[in-house]
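Researcher: Let's try something more involved. This one mixes different molecule types, so please make sure each is placed in the same coordinate frame as the others.
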Amino acid sequence: MEDVPSGAPQHCPGTSSDQAGKSSACQGCPNQAICASGMTKAPDPAVEEIRQKMSTVKHKILVLSGKGGVGKSTFSAHLAHGLASDGSTEVALLDVDICGPSIPKIMGLEGEQVHQSGSGWSPVYVEDNLAVMSIGFLLSSPDDAVIWRGPKKNGMIKQFLRDVDWGDIDYLIVDTPPGTSDEHLSVVQYLSSTHIDGAIIITTPQEVSLQDVRKEISFCRKVKLPVIGVVENMSGFVCPKCKNKSQIFPPTTGGAEKMCQDFNIPLLGKVPLDPRIGKSCDEGKSFLTEVLDSPATAAYKSIIQRIQEYCSSHQPQD
Amino acid sequence: FSTEKGNLAQVRHVVLVLSGKGGVGKSTLTTELALALRQAGKKVGILDVDLCGPSIPRMLSVGRQEVHQCDAGWVPVYTDAHKSLALMSIGFLLENPDDAVIWRGPKKTALIGQFVSDVAWGELDYLLVDTPPGTSDEHLAVVESLRKHRVDGAILVTTPQAVSTGDVRREIAFCKKTGLRVLGIVENMSGFVCPHCSECTNIFSKGGGEELAKLTDSPFLGCVPLDPQLSSSLEEGRDFLQAFPDSATFGAINQIAHAVMTSIAERG
Ligand SMILES: Nc1ncnc2c1ncn2[C@@H]1O[C@H](COP(=O)(O)OP(=O)(O)OP(=O)(O)O)[C@@H](O)[C@H]1O
Ligand SMILES: Nc1ncnc2c1ncn2[C@@H]1O[C@H](COP(=O)(O)OP(=O)(O)O)[C@@H](O)[C@H]1O
Ligand SMILES: [Mg+2]
Ligand SMILES: [Mg+2]
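Model: All components are placed in one shared frame. Result:
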């Protein structure tokens, strides 16, 4: 059954069945009250509104990882910068990391506020063709913590997808928090009647990270989200003094390469550790234009090109 | 259960390990602190409430274990025959290690409630709670289910760069709102010493943790260097503290463990 959540009690009738919340199997299930309320049966009207809203957005890419701190936001930001370096490409970057929004800082937009426009919220612009939206723009101080449980986060994500006035867009890039929980389910469900090109999965080379990333790939398979490919980040460090390479996060189980073979998905490239990336992020500048001679810059550029090629060769027919 | 505190009745101290940011080393620090406390002769438990990304079983190389039931509830998994280090993690409840736990908040809250009330820890000096990044369901669930028991406080982990300290600032606001004492801030991954030429590179910048401690008037517990021997040990589930007792990293971890013990003892 489609609507039986993973880990549901045995004999779960499914969240949209008439028996939802009422059958004997529902006794003791934490979601019983939600199911019994009937909330899970009615399709959310927002899905249709979002479909209409997204009809002016050509490509949608999610940036995911099961593991935290592997560079999702860094990659999302540089993918956006890279795509927008062609002035005729309209790019939008949406940050759905509600509890840990990093995009405002990385894009150099800290302290910016969102404005209400006639047709919704208007995003914050880095350049004419690069628009950004994040919960960070709705907070009044950098100490503000967003201590929200799932449903409130989901409501915010719905608003981001339905009420932001993006206009005509070639690429919408969605940066996510780590894990496979409310935020991820919500983005995928709210976008379910639109075409999502696919997900870029970010990992670092060590098994501690890969073991979580495999879960993310299982998630993609479960919700039928295509995986465009995997990026291995923080892949080796070359000492600036002696030029010797160190594996700070050692690929003890074969790194992203082996995982990609096992799952039969493409490895888009490897980005080395470069202290100047962290520095550019802290300063809110694009590493791609700040540092031209780094192997990391070349790696980013080649990965971005492969993503563009994927998107243009997988256009939906209509 | 017989008493109000139930399975936590004989647990002397509870410490949460938190960070707003992902991948900063919460699980690493939880693991190493547990090992350091054990070396200091303490009985230690780890409760892993990172439901979507449990790392502790691998870091302590207790891979796939069955969790047994007893009258008082779940028996934790012990890492050694002396039962000096006990562990509970969702990793033990999954059929296949690649299975994704695709749960929304209420279900996570329910399992964490069970973890807190139904694990038969027995007698422990310290129970360390490893958490996922953020300030959401899991964090509220642990704090709320532990209300009845006294929580000694939280250790906040950050890496030095601003992208990370920014998120940890928000975690401190979470501690304030929920009445959790901040035992202190640890700066992890500060400075990498090249094993070939001994040149130190600050891959993730430097000093952010200490600055954050000053800014928020929190104790600073110390820096742990970015050390490939530490990441390799964790990959293989080896006890780093036993393998590298002469390293700077060993000294740093030990010092943090003692600072935590002192800080808790002073409060009584
Ligand atoms: N290749 C790299 N070399 C050096 N530093 C990097 C590299 N990639 C990312 N970083 C730095 O690592 C830190 C973590 O990156 P980032 O914030 O993008 O991770 P994330 O996956 O979005 O984390 P979270 O799970 O908390 O959202 C940042 O400070 C970033 O600048
Ligand atoms: N001081 C350090 N030196 C080297 N590697 C580290 C250090 N601290 C953490 N790591 C590595 O960084 C990765 C992320 O750490 P982890 O503890 O899983 O983070 P979190 O629990 O915050 O997501 C792990 O592979 C770990 O081995
Ligand atoms: Mg991020
Ligand atoms: Mg962890």
